[in-house]
Amino acid sequence: MDALRKQATKLREQVARQQQVVWKQFGGGGYASNDNIVTDEAELELYQKLEKLYASTRSSKHFQRDIVRGVEGFIVVGSKQVEIGSKLSEDSKKYGLENSCTSDSTLSKATLRFSQARSEMEKEREVLLKSLSTLIVEPLRAMVVGAQLEDARQLAQRYEKMRQEAEVQSIEVSKRQMRLREGHGNVDNSSKLEASETKLQELKSNMVVLGKEAVAAMTAVEAQQQRLTLQRLIAMVESERIYHQKNLQILDQLVGLMVSERQRIETSPSRMFTDSVPSPPSYEEASGIWSSQTMEGSTDSMGYFLGEVVHSYQAESDFELNLSVGDFVVVRKVSNGWAEGECKGKAGWFPYGYVEKRERVLASKIAEVF
Nearest to residue 268, comparing CAs of 353, 336, 343, 354? Predict the structure, then answer.
């Protein structure tokens, strides 16, 4: 329609020049301006409304196209990030499984957890990219190249062309009116004027009908563009919000696990103590002090006592002790949240809070300790 608009402007200039020639030659025809030859106030308002609608729908179309291009670029970059992130996850998993460190497996475990979290995050990214393609790119692209906008534009172009024809015909009517006045009522000039005026009225009538159809079509397209674009923007923001929320949950869980591992290393008795594990007490020593000690206090103020395991614990190193719920342990030393004791003939360290003191225990359970 831009090319047609330029042609229309050029044609109006030519018509205006012709009109000025007619006015100069015949003393003016009573028309103040070129627009008034063809249009009344209502038709001019219709024409201006159509111009605004055309500019609005064109701007919205360009914005929709920009969104499509931007999201497509984001998808391309995101797909590459998925590839890189997945490779990092695989490398981390390989190291975690094949790590040959002999002193501690903490890094291997942390690496495996990182690998799993990274894999989950890349899956979430893939879901996001698919959502952006399905919910954003496809609907907007369909509207940009859709038939509804094109049909409405064709109506507007037909209206513009008919308006140009009406402008040309209005000049013809003006010329014949002046010739009729010059010819003093010549019958031939009168009949030609009547035919020209009839044709002009038909053009103006058809132009108004077509203009209203074009305005209605363009108004519907404008409303659909506004509604669809807003919906797709909301869908894009919502998709990204969900993506970031899920990633945040994954990262929070990962950080919690890794920080816990780090704290366990920092407080591990294998790092804190280099001296050998003390010898386990005799049965008489252990049984003679249960009723005189408390669970609170430091190593210096506590004696041996019998504790029942309330939380299972898997040893992380040779210095630690495996515990199962219901086991009984002779606790011999407590330091910085860790306890050292014996269970089922084996001695080692374990988290202090995993056991609870017991004052009375069946003899059969005591026998299991040693």
Answer: 336
